[in-house]
Amino acid sequence: MKDHKRTNESNYIQQHLANERTFLAWIRTAIAIIGVGFLVTNLHFNMRSSLSPLGDLLADLIGLSSVGLGILTIMLAIFSYFKKVTTINDQNFQTPKITIILLGFFVILIALIFGLYFLIL
Predict the structure, then answer these.
(1) Which residue in 29, 39, 49, 74 has the fewest CB atoms around it within 10 Å?
(2) Which of these, 117, 121, 5, 16, lies nearest to 61 by C-alpha position?
(3) pTM to 2 decimals?
(4) Hey, where are the domains in the chain?
(5) Closest Cα partner for 62 from 43, 80, 87?
(6) With contact defined as beta carbons under 8 Å apart, do 51 and 121 qualify?
(7) Element (H, E) at 61
(8) InterPro entries given for it (predicted)?
């Protein structure tokens, strides 16, 4: 029979599993954000002949900013995951307020660009 050594992480299994689920949720969110950018860009180029140069610029901006925000979301998710691992083990967990505020701001900014795009459509 193999003797299992208890690690510090094994004391907080539920918290670490919740941290992994949160990380995967952020990854799914990033994929959705990137997907929306591709969707808008594809729809725009299918209707390109009837749209203005400003519409072209906004569609490009939405596509690029969505991909950029998706990549930023993945990077912040990775950073947040490893920071939470340490804070869970040290019993010094703090909520990631800056991450939430930063991502929320960028999502609102892209939503405003979407709104402007649909106004000129």
Answers:
(1) 49
(2) 117
(3) 0.79
(4) 12-120
(5) 43
(6) yes
(7) helix 53-89
(8) DUF202, IM_YidH-like
